[in-house]
């Protein structure tokens, strides 16, 4: 089965294990920075990671890439439908959503797992989000947190 079909099968099934997600990530195409520009809606890619389900409970919307120096790494949706950027530091340490002015990350091309591909680097956290292309407008993301035992996976779909 090719990587795109396997990706779809995993989504339909509702998840996989970390080893399979890593192998699938490695098989997908690299992403260049220009492809990231815009607003992306996110969803979790379940692997049994401790963060699985956390962003969904917080009503995570996705990410917005404005330019190489200005990325909103976490967008959330209010009960009234407003999409807003949140400061990632309070979210990651288990506190609460705090609206941010935006631009709490940047993007660069980074060598990771044998390929040079687009990555988002958080300004104030030891985290890189690496991206691989499933197809145009659809990405598999891998959050590489310095202190985590395993990567956290997510999906981004281009909205604008």
Protein described:
The longest helix has 11 residues, at 3-13. This protein has a nine-stranded antiparallel beta sheet. It has helices at 3-13, 18-27, 33-36, 54-57, 88-92, and strands at 38-44, 60-67, 70-77, 83-85, 105-112, 115-122, 127-135, 138-145, 152-158. It is globular and about 45 Å long. A hairpin with a 2-residue loop joins strand 5 and strand 6 (115-122). With 160 residues, it is of the alpha+beta class. It contains five helices and nine strands; from the N terminus they run H-H-H-E-H-E-E-E-H-E-E-E-E-E. The mean pLDDT is 92. It is 21% helix and 41% strand.
Element string (H = helix, E = strand): HHHEHEEEHEEEEE
Number of helices: 5
Rg value: 15 Å
Q: Approximately what portion of the residues adopt beta-strand conformation?
A: 35-45%
Counting DSSP E segments of at least 2 residues, the number of strands comes to 9
The main sheet comes to: 9 strands, antiparallel
The rough form would be described as: globular
Which segments are poorly predicted (pLDDT under 50) over 5 or more consecutive residues? none
- Give the averaged pLDDT, no decimals: 92
- Oligomeric state of the chains in view: single chain
